[in-house]
Design goal:
Helices cover about 80% and strands about 0% of the residues. By secondary structure, it is mainly alpha-helical. Helix 2 (about 20-55) packs parallel to helix 5 (about 115-135) and helix 3 packs antiparallel against helix 5 (about 115-135). The radius of gyration is 24 Å and the shape is elongated.
């Protein structure tokens, strides 16, 4: 039997919809990855940026105070964002959709060392801030 064009179009248009929970999980996962990448880029730019600015501006004590304020505020922001991203990632991993739980990737995600991730996201900005303050003063 030959199908009509209309029947083929109707068959082709049939799209399976995703439940709200899975869609929310996927959106949050994407947002968390984007926030983490942004955090890394900010950390990489901030680390050498303050010492380079200090040297380029002449390295006097007036500049040091201003840059110390800027670097301290940046460190605080990076601490907040870094720990928030790790917490969000931990929560996303706890809510992996049912249909994905049997995948090896999902099982390995459950074993991530989130305590270590939190420690790293705290120690990196603190260590860079300490280095900046040593350079500035």
């Amino acid at each position: 039997m030959r199908a009509t064009l209309r029947e083929l179009v109707i068959k082709r248009r049939k799209v399976e919809t995703m439940d709200v929970k899975t869609q929310y999980w996927l959106n949050e996962n994407r947002n968390t990855v984007f926030q983490f990448i942004t955090w890394i880029i900010a950390l990489v730019l901030w680390g050498p940026g303050i010492p380079l600015a200090f040297g380029a501006l002449g390295g006097n004590s007036d500049m040091a105070v201003g840059l110390a304020v800027v670097t301290s505020a940046t460190a605080l922001g990076l601490l907040i964002v870094g720990t928030s991203v790790v917490t969000a990632y931990k929560n996303i991993t706890a809510d992996i959709p049912e249909e994905a739980l049997d995948l090896a990737f999902a099982q390995s995600e459950k074993k991530n060392p989130f305590g270590f991730f939190t420690a790293v996201t705290i120690l990196l900005p603190v260590a860079i801030l300490a280095g900046h303050l040593l350079i500035l003063f």
